[in-house]
Design goal:
Number of domains: 3
Radius of gyration: 24 Å
Mean pLDDT: 93
CATH superfamily of the largest domain: FAD/NAD(P)-binding domain
CATH topology of the largest domain: FAD/NAD(P)-binding domain
Bound molecules: flavin-adenine dinucleotide
Distance between the termini: 38 Å
Strand content: 25-35%
Structural class: alpha+beta
Low-confidence stretches: none
């Protein structure tokens, strides 16, 4: 059988958090999209728990944030313990975001909420459908699909998003490198109930000379347990049982607690790898297919979601002829430096926390209180964890975009309060048009020829001069009142003016 997407369309491969976000964004933007996953059912396991502030900022305005907030448990700090006492804490409530906490929610729930939003936008995940072949032509991609019943179909898509996970069959089929290493440590994971003095509004990390243990509160007395596996068993070993997990807990944690009702457990080894390109012709890679790293800091799933929020608006604007094709190259130039830094950061944190070298352990436990006692360290570390500090300011898409105060083109625009000319106080993100750029301006307008690409919001306070904001909430360009040249030059580089687009 041969099928095609309503042309031109995008085929999303994989319905984990990355693929679901891609399909949700593309369908919201009016792109014809199909999303397939070879697994017949969604995974019921909790896996990635942490939903970071930046992800919440982006998902709230896309209709999913409120549900996530209702379902998840909020933690306002990470507390480190060692040598039988509390050492120091990282305070998320210092983050300059409405979401100044880490939200803990089972990945299966996050996926369910994304899939529900996708369904309200008219797209259903096609399950039990596997990509078994892919061929790129000059103007499209032919993708071979096979269902669990053995039916075959060839789909023609303008672009493919490979969100097919860490073992990405598409990445392998295209022979693309996945550079990095397997780290030597093995971990034990489990979701368990716990009674004792472990706080339910914080992440608790217990450091020991022979590894570490962390417990993350999921609400209602349930905790994610994660610890260095002292037996160093690989993924093939049997799943740890409650007795083994209690033993690990008692060995490291100074707070007495009784663990019960273990409802999921696993062992795993960390890989720390990323692709060196996120695009191969008409195929884009994101999420675990493009980068895998230690779960330290709960960054992975969030990075995948943000990959897709970066890519989707660019694809939509190129597909409907409003942007030049080379805008698509900026997905990689924006995201790859952020990914590379993330992989490095999580690798360093993992090495530090797992050190079995007594000197390194002594240094860590002595230095942690001193370092985390400094506000400058907190102010640097906490926004990084919340993924608020990631910036695209050195990427080509930010070039020539100028700045406003300390905010430079490519930086995240904080969701601050602005006053409209009607005198209303509004959240800046509520004024954004998520399908095109938004010009927030105290004076002046968008260039006439770009009114199909730029929505205009007149504001009287909260913005100096004008700010041009991308649909993903990053600053495209900014300038003083009357400086339209910066805006027009920046737009000319990436977008197709209305007169040219309509001929
Ligand atoms: C046991 C475990 C524990 C974890 N714990 C944490 C944690 O504590 N913190 C953290 O941040 N992260 C954790 N992770 C990682 C986290 O789950 C991933 O970062 C996240 O799932 C990545 O999302 P994704 O959508 O990119 O890929 P995935 O969720 O892997 O989704 C890829 C999808 O593609 C589908 N697929 C693959 N090949 C094909 C094909 N050929 N055709 C069609 N479909 C295909 C798969 O069925 C799968 O559903 C954990 C992972 C595991 C396995």
């Amino acid at each position: 059988m041969t099928g095609s997407l309503e042309s031109p369309g995008v085929l999303v491969v994989g319905a984990g958090p990355t693929g679901l976000t891609a399909a949700m964004e593309l369908s919201r933007l009016g792109v014809a999209v199909r999303i397939v996953d070879r697994a017949p059912e969604p995974s019921p396991t909790s896996r990635a728990l942490g939903v970071q502030a930046r992800t919440l900022e982006l998902l709230r305005v896309r209709g999913v944030g409120d549900e996530l907030l209702r379902a998840g448990n909020r933690a306002s700090a990470t507390t480190l313990y060692a040598r039988g006492r509390r050492l120091a804490a990282l305070h998320f409530d210092r983050m300059a975001s409405d979401f100044n906490f880490i939200l803990l929610l089972a990945q299966s729930e996050t996926e369910r909420l994304l899939a529900e939003q996708l369904a309200t936008q008219g797209v259903k995940v096609e399950r039990g459908v596997e990509v078994v072949g892919l061929q790129q032509g000059p103007g499209d991609v032919q993708v071979r699909l096979r269902t669990t019943h053995g039916d075959q179909e060839t789909v023609t898509a303008a672009y493919v998003i490979a969100a097919d996970g860490a073992h990405s069959p598409i990445r392998k089929a295209l022979g693309l490198p996945f550079e990095g290493r397997s780290m030597t440590h093995n971990y034990v994971l489990g979701d368990v109930h716990l009674v004792g003095g472990v706080p339910e509004d914080q992440l608790s990390i217990f450091l020991a000379p022979n590894g570490f243990l962390a417990v993350f509160p999921m609400g209602d007395g349930r905790f994610r347990f994660m610890a260095t596996d002292p037996d160093g068993l690989a993924g093939e070993a049997p799943e740890p049982d409650l007795t083994a997990i209690q033993r690990l807990y008692d060995r490291v944690a100074p707070i007495r607690a009784e663990l019960y009702e273990l409802n999921w457990s696993s062992r795993f080894r960390i890989n720390s790898r990323h692709m060196t390109t996120l695009r191969s012709g008409r195929v884009f890679f994101g999420g675990d297919a493009a980068h895998v790293h230690s779960p330290a800091g709960g960054q992975g799933m969030n990075a995948g979601i943000q990959d897709m929020i970066n890519l989707a608006w660019k694809l939509a604007m190129v597909l409907d002829g409003r942007a030049h094709e080379h805008l698509l190259d900026t997905y990689e130039t924006d995201r790859l430096p952020v990914i590379t830094q993330l992989v490095r950061m999580t690798e360093r944190a993992t090495t530090l926390f797992n050190s079995t070298n007594p000197v390194a352990h002594a240094a860590l436990t002595a230095l942690a209180p001193r370092l985390l006692g400094r506000s400058a360290v907190q102010d640097k570390a906490v926004p990084r964890l919340g993924q608020l500090a990631a910036t695209y300011r050195n990427a080509p898409l930010a070039a020539g975009g100028g700045r406003t105060g300390s905010l430079r083109a490519g930086d995240r625009v904080p969701d601050s309060e602005v006053t409209t000319v009607a005198g209303e106080h509004r959240r800046l993100y509520d004024l954004l048009d998520l399908s095109r750029l938004t010009l927030l301006t105290a004076t002046g307008d968008a260039p006439e020829q770009y009114l199909n690409i730029v929505a205009v919001q007149h504001v009287s306070a909260g913005v100096d001069g004008w700010w041009l904001v991308r649909p993903d909430g990053y600053l495209a360009a900014a300038g003083r009142a009357g400086d339209q040249r910066t805006m027009t030059r920046w737009l000319d580089r990436w977008f197709i003016p209305r007169s040219a687009a309509t001929g």
